[in-house]
Specification:
The chain is an all-beta fold. The protein has one helix and 20 strands.
């Protein structure tokens, strides 16, 4: 089974400082048919205007990953973590027993465009933690680069969930053949550009739910930046 969700079918919030598209139900946007996919609960595609952002607010029992596409994103939290993320940076905050944080665009000139991703944890009330890494484009070019994993032995950010999150950059003749592990669920999100997955043509913001497929071919990328989720 392959099910396409086109970008224009997502939930949408437009404020004077925020333009946000929701792949799954979030906030005031509620659609019982799109409550998540396996442990993947949220993909919010956010563009925040210069000097604006999300004030301090709380989370608990959620794995929250931020992936910056353009601009800069400033993070502060109650654990004392603080950083300014830029394209190529990926951040993972395990909210666990509870954490307060803020996300802000420190630029006075340029917007910040980033994805906020929520993964449901496989255990409750863990000690909150913060991790980040910078991934070079060369590590993603024409190949799947592991960003986060539930296996502490992987060279990746550690998730409290039996899941793996990959990123890739594909253009021209570059392609990836991916065999979804048996019994697992897969989700593909087009962060930027366009691509073909098997016979499905996908553009920026499109998503793909995959179940019981033997193979996926990611090809014909046009400046494509893709996230692929291997889920329980």
């Amino acid at each position: 089974m392959i099910e396409v969700r086109h970008a224009n079918e997502r939930g949408h919030v437009q404020l004077d400082w925020l333009n946000s598209y929701h792949s799954f139900s979030f906030g005031h946007y509620h659609d019982p048919a799109h409550m998540g996919w396996s442990a993947l609960r949220v993909i919010n595609d956010d563009t925040v205007q210069p000097g604006q952002g999300f004030g301090t607010h709380g989370h608990r029992d959620m794995e929250i990953l931020s992936y910056v596409l353009e601009g800069a994103l400033q993070h502060r939290d109650s654990m004392g973590s603080g950083s300014t993320l830029r394209p190529g940076d990926v951040q993972l905050m395990s909210a666990g027993t509870g954490v307060q944080h803020s996300e802000f665009n420190p630029s006075q000139n340029d917007p910040v465009h980033f994805l906020q991703i929520w993964i449901l944890p496989d255990q409750q009330n863990v000690t909150p933690s913060y991790q980040e890494r910078h991934i070079q484009d060369a590590q993603k070019r024409g190949q799947l680069k592991l960003l986060a994993s539930g296996d502490p032995n992987d060279d990746a950010l550690f998730l409290h969930q039996d899941a793996r999150i990959y990123a890739t950059l594909l253009n021209g003749d570059e392609h990836i053949e991916y065999a979804p592990p048996f019994g697992r669920q897969t989700y593909v999100h087009v962060a930027q550009g366009s691509i073909k997955v098997n016979n499905h043509e996908l553009k920026t913001g499109d998503g793909l739910k995959v179940l019981d497929e033997l193979a996926l071919l990611l090809s014909e990328g046009d400046n494509a930046e893709i996230l692929l989720f291997d889920l329980p």
